[in-house]
Every structure is written in structure tokens, then in C-alpha cells.
Design goal:
Distance between the termini: 35 Å
CATH topology of the largest domain: Aminopeptidase
Order of helices and strands: HHEEEHEHEEEEHEEHEHEHEEHHH
Helix content: 40-55%
CATH superfamily of the largest domain: Zn peptidases
Low-confidence stretches: none
Structural class: alpha/beta
Radius of gyration: 24 Å
Number of strands: 14
CATH class of the largest domain: Alpha Beta
Bound molecules: zinc ion
Strand content: 15-25%
Strand order of the largest sheet: 1-2-4-3-5-13
Length: about 400
């Protein structure tokens, strides 16, 4: 380990009690997306105590924030992304209390270097589990002056480079004509019939799409009483594909399917997006390799090859505008299942503390490499330009 990383290593040990207290408190006080006031208070308090300039309510989102620390020398701008939202029922079952704390911790450690080039930014990004705020932050230009972005996520193995699926959330509303279900059958147009046709059509379509494309739907509204021919029926669908482009053609197929289903019974259909669209995560391989190299500096050799997460993350939208990584680090035995109470429990246990310390160290090492190694940043940016 070179001298500066040795310094960050010691600093991480020193701030651990303070930042672990923050991580644990957030873990024990779970808040749902866009309501994370307690978490934001604790994280920004920690950053302010260490000399960061904090702006809250970034991009008009009450629980988003931006914390900056300028180094003594000019240089690039590096963003650590902090997540801190929880899940209904299972609290911090995704371990986002550790994500926010690790990003804030790594940023503070970097700020302790007297020779810090450029600027370290912590971006507080609410509601990853629902309608991810990173999408709004990207659209509002918050990443406009950022050179690279990173975070870590607790998981079942160590993986530096991941990809994830692009996602569209579509609402379909079928409209028919209400009538007495027995006395005026001929007058009614049954919206539920259209909806059922749609689900049948989707089942057929599923057999013709690539393995990594996914269509999952539920019925949200399906009539009010059996003696009224339903005039309205609503379904929610998540469509996913490996690339935004293939997702767009999948979306066209699904919409056509809905239109045909409606036409069969002379009903009408409309569709709209009911949540934000997530883009696929495109990890910057050069940045991911740097992260993996720093994991090895910490003695961790058990690193899995690049993986495709079968879910979607809002970091995907960030990875389209700046070089970014979303690595996973193994928490516990690797058998704890995300989005469970078990996972939430581990994230506030001693094991959570161990993982937080590791994440802070590896993120700060990687951050230092990006800020101080001009050639490395050039390579990261070259790769980004070639992909986009
Ligand atoms: Zn998560």
C-alpha cells in the first residue's frame, strides 16, 4: 500500500465510530423514498462537521442534497452517490443505510489530504427503490460538471463491474361502456374482456422475446360489481431489456398487443408511463478495474467477473451521462437475500460495520486514483466516449 493510501486507511479507522453511528441510526430509523429527512439530517450533519459545504433540496427534491469540498489544487470533480431510502415492511432490507454512510465517509477521508486535487462531491439521491431521484438529478443537469461517479452496494458477492436492465413502467387503461350485465349485455363493452385478451396476448408474446427481456404485469382495476359490465380496467406493467434500444421495440410490441386486445371487443386503450424509466447500467470498465485493484490492495482476491443484475438501478441513468460504477461488496455469508428483514438486520450488525469500513477504504482509494492520476481519468473518459 503506498503512503497516501496508508494515510486514508488510518483515517478510515479514525472516523469509523462516528460514521458507523450514522449508518446504524439510519438503519434503525428506516424511511421510505422522498421522506428520508432523518437520514439526510444525519448525513449532511456529518459532512458539515468535516467542513463540507452543504446544499439541501437539490433539483427541487426535498430529501436530495449536494455536499462539496474543494481541494487545494485544481483538478477534476468526483461524485460519491449516497442512497438512504428503505423498503416498506422490511426497513433497510437493501442496506442503503450503508451506501449513504460509505459515500459520505469516503468523501470525508479524501478531504483530509492536504494535497487534494479538484473537488469531492457527495450527491444525496433519494428513493432508489421506487421512482429513483437520480433520474431527476440527471435531467436537471446536476451531473453536468462531474467527471466520474461512484457508490457501492451491499450484495452476495464482490463484483466491480455490473450491468443492469433498462426498465419502463407502463399503465394501460382499457375503456368500454358500462351496462347491466344481464339485461343490457348487447349495449355494454367489457373493458375487462379487453384486459384479459391483453394478458393472453402478452403470454404469447413472451415466448417470442429474448431471454433477457422481461414483461411483468398486474391488474390494478378490473370492474366494480359483477352486475355491471366493467367500463374501465387498468393494468401496470414493468418491461425490461438489456438495452434502452431493444426496450423501445419491446414497448412497441406490447402496445400493439394492447391495441389489438382492445379492438377485439370494440374497446379503447390508452397507455402512459406511471413511474420513471430506468436506463441500463453501463459500468465504466476502466473505473471498475481500478476499484477491483483497490479491493486487492485490501487483501480481497475473491472478485467475481462482470455480472448482469437481473433488476434495474437508477444509477443506470447516471452511467449514461458520466463514467460510473455500481460495484457490489459481499455482506455477511453472501446467503442473506436482499429485500428481507434478515438483510436489514445484517446491515446494522457488526458485519455491517466491517463492510462499511471496507467500502469507505476502497471508495476513497479509487476516488484518489481518479482525482490524482491524470492518465487514468483520460482513459476512463476515452472509454466513456467510445461507448456513447
Ligand atoms: Zn438497493
Amino acid at each position: 500500500m503506498d503512503a497516501i493510501k496508508g494515510f486514508f486507511n488510518d483515517q478510515a479507522r479514525q472516523i469509523l465510530p462516528e460514521i458507523w453511528e450514522v449508518a446504524k441510526a439510519i438503519g434503525e430509523n428506516p424511511e421510505l423514498g422522498y421522506q428520508e429527512h432523518f437520514a439526510v439530517g444525519r448525513l449532511t450533519g456529518f459532512l458539515q462537521r468535516h467542513g463540507f459545504e452543504v446544499e439541501r433540496g437539490t433539483a427541487g427534491l426535498q430529501t436530495a442534497f449536494l455536499a462539496r469540498y474543494r481541494g487545494n489544487n485544481p483538478g477534476p470533480k468526483l461524485a460519491f452517490l449516497a442512497e438512504y431510502d428503505a423498503l416498506p415492511g422490511v426497513g433497510h432490507g437493501c442496506g442503503h443505510n450503508l451506501i449513504g454512510a460509505a459515500s459520505a465517509g469516503a468523501a470525508v477521508i479524501l478531504s483530509k489530504s492536504l494535497n487534494l486535487p479538484g473537488e469531492v462531491i457527495v450527491i444525496g439521491t433519494p428513493a432508489e427503490e421506487t421512482s429513483g431521484a437520480k433520474i431527476t438529478l440527471v435531467e436537471q443537469g446536476v451531473f453536468g460538471d462531474v467527471d466520474a461517479a461512484m457508490m457501492f452496494h451491499p450484495g452476495s458477492q464482490n463484483v466491480a463491474e455490473i450491468s443492469s436492465l433498462a426498465l419502463d413502467a407502463l399503465e394501460f387503461t382499457f375503456r368500454g361502456r358500462a351496462a347491466h350485465a344481464v339485461a343490457a349485455t348487447h349495449y355494454g363493452i367489457n373493458a375487462v374482456d379487453a384486459l384479459i385478451n391483453f394478458f393472453v396476448g402478452i403470454n404469447a408474446l413472451k415466448k417470442q422475446i429474448p431471454d433477457d427481456a422481461k414483461i411483468n404485469g398486474i391488474i390494478v382495476e378490473g370492474g366494480t360489481a359483477p352486475n355491471i359490465i366493467p367500463e374501465r380496467a387498468v393494468a401496470h406493467f414493468y418491461l425490461r431489456a438489456r438495452r434502452r434500444k431493444s426496450l423501445e421495440s419491446l414497448r412497441e410490441q406490447v402496445i400493439r398487443c394492447a391495441q389489438e386486445a382492445a379492438a377485439t371487443v370494440a374497446a379503447q386503450v390508452e397507455w402512459k408511463k406511471f413511474e420513471f424509466s430506468y436506463d441500463e447500467m453501463q459500468s465504466n470498465a476502466t473505473l471498475a478495474d481500478t476499484f477491483a485493484r483497490n479491493l486487492r490492495v485490501m487483501g480481497i482476491e475473491d472478485i467475481a467477473p462482470p455480472q448482469t443484475a437481473m433488476g434495474s438501478v437508477d444509477m443506470g441513468n447516471v452511467s449514461r451521462v458520466v463514467p460510473a460504477i455500481h460495484p457490489y461488496l459481499m455482506m455477511g455469508t453472501g446467503t442473506e437475500i436482499p429485500h428481507t428483514r434478515d438483510f436489514a438486520h445484517t446491515a446494522v450488525s457488526q458485519e455491517g460495520e466491517r463492510l462499511l469500513l471496507l467500502a469507505i477504504r476502497v471508495l476513497s482509494f479509487t476516488g484518489w486514483d481518479v482525482l490524482s492520476d491524470v492518465k487514468l481519468l483520460q482513459k476512463i473518459k476515452r472509454e466513456f466516449r467510445q461507448r456513447h
